[in-house]
Amino acid sequence: MKKITLILFALIGSYQSFAQKTSTINVDFNKNIGEMYPFWAFFGADEPNYAYMKDGKKLLSELSTLSPVPVYFRAHNLLTSGHDTLTLKWGSTNVYTEDAKGNPIYDWTIVDKIFDTYLQRGIKPVAQFSFMPEVLSTKPQPYEHHWQPGMPYNDIYKGWTYPPKDYKKWANLVYEWVKHSVARYGKAEVETWYWELWNEPNIGYWSGTVQEYCKLYDYTADAAKRALPTIRMGGPETTGPSWNKAADFLNIFLKHCVSDTNYVTGKIGSPLDFISFHAKGAPKIVDGHVQMNMGTQLRDISEGFRIVTSYPTLKNLPIIIGESDPEGCAACGMKTNPQNAYRNGTMYSSYTAASFARKYALADFHKANLLGAVSWSFEFENQPYFYGFRDLATNGIDKPVLNVFRMFGMMSGKRVEVKGNQNYNFTMVRDSSVRGKNADIDALASKDAHSAAVMLWHYHDDDVQAPNANIEVNLKGFPAKQVNFHHYRIDNENSNSYEVWKKMGSPENPTKEQIAILEKAGQLTLLTSPSYVKTQNGELKMTISLPRQGVSLLKFDW
């Protein structure tokens, strides 16, 4: 009898344990909460010249293919002096030099090569007026940096960061570039681009004052609007607004555009068509493993939205989060920065799914007009395989994080209501991140005229092993009695080139056969074969087992 009682207690305990671990996700496709607008279709890189190189072209083509709308690409160094290079955190186009008499010489060869590559693949530029050409810099020497991973970050800030010695010559450069772009690509095309001034002017990227940046913005915007009155001009691309000094700079700039005297026209205000700032997380090593900090990034976004919407005349302007990432240095590999070891595997992909869903929620909460969130993540030419850069692909091999964007590309129409017994809502993740014993098991869902999709994730800030999440998914609002069902998955066994590479023995020089296997493993794959599923009164119930740091997309068509 005692033995039977113990067995019963054990069974009850197992049942209670299972019940505690089961998460419920309820999706109502009839309850719209907003547009499923593709703000995620923005990417960027420090190194503009990679765009027209072998792996750069390949990745741009893939980015264009995954998105139902044009992808935008933001790059630094589009006006930097020098010639195309493979140096990390650097790039150059040499568009501006002068003759012996100080007359300007414009050469659009390299910048055209970059933009031609974009447009040939359906990519549109977020065209950045940066950085200062050597001959215009007030402190030109030393000009080019020679930074490598592991070196102090401040080593990159050289002569290209300084204000112009002649603002009118700078303005003429701006005018001529926009005018040339219209002549080459057509007015209708250039009107669809976004143009901005500089990058992170509140830190070392700009060696002038905030007032000098505002002055440069006035000269830039005036010249750009003279060349193309309908151009979309914005800024200031400051660092995270939750940092006081960054918030101060952002506020000074916005106030200048609204109510200060324009340095060029002498009138009040400066034209501003969109507003941009950055948002970054802060991973670290804790007890021997990587611990992410999604809350830090979401607080940047939340504070930026709050600041922008506090200005009555600006609150409806589009916002581009010009860099929106788990941390701040794409070119800092995991060997020199071990906290970046999240980048090759599923930690990066699950973080992306969970954080982007919260960006929708934060925009809803603040009534902010979120246009884009740039993933500052592209590729690095001629670098070791899976070195741990923050990139979407390595030597032409797609990494798991790229497959999250493939999933986003299959979601369209309206965002719909998701409820259940989730452990976190967006304010909890923003304020406290995802810590403690409970994981973030949640979903983002959408519905279009003839399709619906549910993205599920099992995320935690701590990159440690844990049991699979048992998720009961209750769906209602299907307009059809039968739907075609596809289940896509990113985990250690699916859509994961990194795990396949490790099983190969982590080859530094894979063979052609191995590369072909890795390229296939880098694509988004189905967990199960497609099937037709019958609904009952427009409802459907499913049970999903999702590994820690895994992401699933449940796609339905009718």
UniProtKB/TrEMBL annotation:
Keyword Transferase applies:
no
Which residues does UniProt assign to the signal peptide? 1-19
Q: Where is the active site?
A: E200
Q: What Gene Ontology molecular function terms does this protein carry?
A: hydrolase activity, hydrolyzing O-glycosyl compounds
Tell me where in this chain the Glycosyl hydrolases family 39 N-terminal catalytic domain is found.
25-521
Among the GO biological process terms of this entry, one is: carbohydrate metabolic process
One Pfam family named in its UniProt record: Glyco_hydro_39
Keyword set, alphabetical order: Glycosidase, Hydrolase, Signal
Q: In which family does this protein belong, per the annotation?
A: Belongs to the glycosyl hydrolase 39 family.
Under PANTHER family, the record lists:
ALPHA-L-IDURONIDASE (PTHR12631:SF8)
Q: What is this protein called?
A: Xylan 1,4-beta-xylosidase
